[in-house]
Amino acid sequence: MTKILIVGGVAGGASAAARARRLSEDAEIIMFERGPFVSFANCGLPYHIGGDIQERSKLLLQTPESFLARFNVDVRVMNEVVSIDRHNKSVTVKNLVDGSEYSESYDFLLLSPGAGPVVPPIPGIDNPLTHSLRNIPDMDRIIQTIQMNKPEHATVVGGGFIGLEMMEAFHQLGIKTTLIEMADQVMTPVDREMAGFAHAEIRQKGINLKLGVALQSVEYIPNDHIASVGSGESEEHQHIEGELNLTLNNGESLTTDILIMAIGVRPETKLAAEAGLQIGELGGIYTNEMMQTSDPAIYAVGDAVEEKDFVTGAQTLVPLAGPANRQGRMAADNMLGRNETYQGTQGTAICKIFDLAVASTGKNEKQLKRDGVEYEKVYVHTASHASYYPGAEIVSFKMLFDPKNGKIFGAQAVGKDGVDKRIDVMAVAQRAGMTVEQLQHLELTYAPPYGSAKDVINQAAFVASNLIKGDAKAIHYGEICDLSEDQILLDVRNPGELEAVGCLAGAINIPVDQLRQRMGELPKDKEIIIYCQVGLRGNVAYRQLVNNGYKARNLIGGYRTYKFAHA
Amino acid sequence: MTKILIVGGVAGGASAAARARRLSEDAEIIMFERGPFVSFANCGLPYHIGGDIQERSKLLLQTPESFLARFNVDVRVMNEVVSIDRHNKSVTVKNLVDGSEYSESYDFLLLSPGAGPVVPPIPGIDNPLTHSLRNIPDMDRIIQTIQMNKPEHATVVGGGFIGLEMMEAFHQLGIKTTLIEMADQVMTPVDREMAGFAHAEIRQKGINLKLGVALQSVEYIPNDHIASVGSGESEEHQHIEGELNLTLNNGESLTTDILIMAIGVRPETKLAAEAGLQIGELGGIYTNEMMQTSDPAIYAVGDAVEEKDFVTGAQTLVPLAGPANRQGRMAADNMLGRNETYQGTQGTAICKIFDLAVASTGKNEKQLKRDGVEYEKVYVHTASHASYYPGAEIVSFKMLFDPKNGKIFGAQAVGKDGVDKRIDVMAVAQRAGMTVEQLQHLELTYAPPYGSAKDVINQAAFVASNLIKGDAKAIHYGEICDLSEDQILLDVRNPGELEAVGCLAGAINIPVDQLRQRMGELPKDKEIIIYCQVGLRGNVAYRQLVNNGYKARNLIGGYRTYKFAHA
After folding, report:
1. What GO molecular functions are on record for this protein (chains A, B) (predicted)?
2. Secondary structure element (H or E) that encloses residue A199, with its range
3. Tens of pLDDT along A374-403?
4. I want to staple A11 with a disulfide (CB 3.0 to 4.6 A). Which of A324, B24, B230, B255 is the partner?
5. A43 catalytic per annotation
6. How many CA atoms lie within 13 A of A160 on its CB side?
7. Can you name the CATH fold of B474-565?
8. Residues 317-336, chain A: which have Cβ within 8 Å of B?
9. How far apart are CA A197 and CA A565, in angstroms?
10. A130-261 maps to which CATH number?
11. Which CATH architecture has domain B355-469?
C-alpha cells in the first residue's frame, strides 16, 4: 500500500490527489493545506471582488468532505507541513488550530505549495489598508475593507494579471483607480508595442495609469472618525479606516483609500530548501521531467517549481494554472509507477483588460533579444470574423519566427473578439513544431459569424512567408524614426484616413489605387518606405514599385502598429 | 508578358487575380464573370436576407472599377466564357448584354466557375415561388418575393449550410418555417448523434423539422388576387403571388408560400468537360497538387475541382471558401513560375444554427465506417470557460482517433460558445500530425473568461489516452440498448438529476460519492455498465470498481450523449 502525502490543496495538489485515487484504490492519500480551503478557484478571486462572480460559494470547487466522499482523500485544512525528514521519510505537521504538532510518514511526498506575493520592503507598507491577493482569506479581507470603508480611490501596484484584474474590479465597483507599474508597459508576456493597445484601453476607461514609476513609501493616516453605531457603522470599522499617502519615485505623491500590491509572485521554497532539496537558479524547486525533485521520493509541481521552457529548453518559472494541473496529474502517475514526462511550458497566457483580451504564447521579442536569438516578426490587424457580418472586431496579431527556417518562436494578440482562439491556434502550431510556411495552409473554421476565408493566422503566415521568400522587404515601426537621406516615406492611404487617424511627418501621400498612374512622382534613387493603415495596401504598393524597378520597404503592420507602440 | 485569363470572379478567381498582379506588374490579366458582380460575399447572402447584414452594399467586396484601380485587372462582368480552344490557347466569350461573341487568347487559363445548386427533377419545381441561393441576383429575387408576397410560411428543402442559414433567416423574419431533409440528420459533416443537439435547437425555436423525408412534387397555385394599385400594391406582385402545395414521400402534404431548394451543389464542369479536360470520379475537375488540370496551361480551383483529402489522400469535393481562396493564390503562384503545392483539404466546417455553433474537421464516423478504418471515439461535455465565471456554456465535443497509435482522424463540436476555437485547435493538431496523447500536453489560453485550466481538448485527450492505455474501458451510446444478461446498468448521478433530465430504464442508482460504501450491492459476476451525466463521474466510479476487482465499462460522454443522439 503506497502512502502519499501532498502539501498544498489547490490546483496541482488537488489534481494529483484525484488522479492518484483513480489509479489506486488502496493508496493512502493525505493532503495538507495550511489555509482553511482546498481546491478553490484562485483565478476567480478578483472577479468576485469586482462582482462578476456574485456568489462566493462558486469559488469553492471542492471541500474536505467532498474530497473524502469522492476520492477517499484525507484532507487536512489548517494543517501546515513545517519540516521534512527525508532520511526517515516523514514530515512534521503543525495543526494551526490548536498549535499541536505531529508527524506523518510517506512513501511519496508531493510538494505543491504555490508561489506567494512579493511584497517589497517599502517603508510603511505594513498597514491595514494594504493588501495582496492570493487566497480566499485575502479576498475576504479586501471585500471587507471595501464594504466598510467605501473607498473612493484605490491604487494597484503592478500591471501583471492580478494587478490588471484588481484594477478592473475596482473600476467596476465605481472606485477611481490608479495603476502604478515600474516597467514601461503592463502585461509583460507581450511586447511593449502590443501592450500599447492595453494602455489605450486602460486610459480610455478613466484609470490613472502610471508607467515607469515605482512606489517609494507609504504613510498610513488613520481616520479619527468615531463609529456611529446607531447609524449602522460597526466599531471594527474604526480601526482600519483611514487613508494612505503614497510617495512615488518620480517625486509625485498620491492619496488613496486602499492599496493592492501585485508586483509578482515568488515560489514557496522554504520547506523544500530546508529539507535540502535542490533549488534552481531561478529560485524555484528543481524538478526533472518526471516532476521529481532531487530526492526521488519527493515530487513537486505548480508555481513553486522550475520547469523546462518548451522553446529554449532552459529552466523557467511559469506560475500558471494549466501547467500546475497537468503536472499534478503526471506526478501522481509517476508516484504510482507510470512513466509520464512533462513536455515543457510555452507560457501561454491571456488576460482580460476591460473589453480587450491580451494573450501570448511562446517567446516574446524581449526574451529573444536577451537570448541573442535571430528572429523576424510580422504584424497583422484584421477582422475577428467576416467584416461584413455584425460584431467583427480587429485582432492585432504579432508573430515571431526564425527568418531562415520559419520556425515559430511565439505569438501575441490583442483585441475584443477572437484573441484566445488565435493564440490557441499558435500554441498548438508551435507545440507541433510547425513553420510559418505551414501556417499558410491551415484550414480553420469559417462561416461569417466565426472567421474569414483567410483567417488572421493565414494572413500572418502569408506576410511571414513573403518575407522569408524575399517577396517583401520589411521595415518595422521602431526604424521609422531613423530614416536616412536616402529614404522617403510614402503613405498609400486615402487622404480622409490620414486626417482621421493621423500620419507620419514628411510622408508623401499617394493612395494605392492611384499609384500606378502617379509612380513617376517618386524618385528611383531613393528607397521608398511605404506604409498604409495595417500593411495590406502597403504590400500591394510595394509589389507595384519593386516590379517597376523601385527600391522599397513596407511598414509591417502599418500605421496602426506604429501608433499603438507609442500608447 | 504573360497573359492570364480567369473564368469566375468570386473567391478563387478574385484571389488568383490579385495575387498574380502582386507577383507580376506586366502580366495581362482578364477576369470573366458571367454574372453582374465579382468578388461578392456569397457566404453572407442568407444573413442579408435574414437582416443580420442590413446593407446590401456590404456584400459587394470589390467592383470591376476597384479591381482595375488597385490590381490593373480587366474585369468583364456579364461575359461568359462559352468554349475553350486548347490547341490555339484561346477562349470564346459571349457578351451576355448584347449577345455578341469574341475570342481571347491566353498563356494560362484559370477555371474558377464554382458549383451550382442541385435542383432535382421534381414535378412542378419550376415555378416563381421556388428559389435556390447562389449569388446576388438569386438573393435579390428571394428578398423581392418576401417583400412583395409577405409569406407567412416558408419551406426549406435541405439541411446543409445554406438550408440551415435560410431556415434561420426566415425565422428571424417572423415567417413560420418547415425544414425538410431526406437524411436522418441535418449538417452531415457531423455525425448523427452530434446533429441531435442541432435538431433539439431547431425544434426548440419552433421550426417544423422533418427528417428522413423527401419532397415528391410541387403544385403552384397562383393567386387570383388583383393588385390594388391605389393602395400601393404593384402589378408585378400579381403574377408571382400564390402558394405551393408540396407533396412529401411520407404521404404528407404541406402548403407553403415560398420554397428554397438547398439540397446541395454540383461542380460546374461543363466548360472543362467540353474542352476535354479530365473530370474526376466524383464529378469535379481533376487537378494535381499544383492546381493544374490535365492541360498544363489550364489551372482550376475552388468548388469546381476535386482535391486531395488531407486524411485519406483520396480525391474529395469540398465546396468551401477557405480552400478556394488559398487554391486561387497558389494557382497564381504556379502560373507565374513558382512551385506551390496544395496540402490537401480537411473539410473544416462550421455553421451557426440559431444560438448553436456546429463544427467539424477531418473525417467523421460515417466516413471512417464506410472506408473500413478502425477507429475509437470519445465524447466530452464541458464548460467553454471556467464554469464559475458568467457566460460559460457546455461544449459537446467528439474526437475520432486511431485506437493503436492515437492519430487524430477528426473532431466535431456543438455548443453556444467556444466551438470554433476547439475545432480550430483540432484542425491544427490534425494537420500537424499530432496524436491524442500529445493533445494532453497542449497549453491553451486560460483565464476564467476564456477557458479552463484543463481545456475541453485536454480533457478529451485524457479520456482518449485512458482508453488507449487501458485505464478505461468504453461503452458507447449505441450499445446501451443491446445489453446482455451478464451486464447491469449503474447510474452514478444524484437522484435529483435522474428526475430532472431522465435516466436509462433498469439502471441501479448509486451516487458516485456513496459508491465506496455501497459497492457490496453490486454483483462481481456481471459487467457493470456505468454512466453519469457526461462521463466524468462515471470514470471515477469505473476506476473504483475495477480497482476493487469488478468488471466494468463507462458510458463515454454519459447520458447527455445518449439523450441527444436520439434528438
Report:
1. oxidoreductase activity
2. helix A192-204
3. 999 999 999 999 999 999 999 999 999 999
4. A324
5. yes
6. 16
7. Oxidized Rhodanese; domain 1 (3.40.250)
8. 320-326, 329
9. 8
10. 3.50.50.60
11. 3-Layer(bba) Sandwich (3.50)
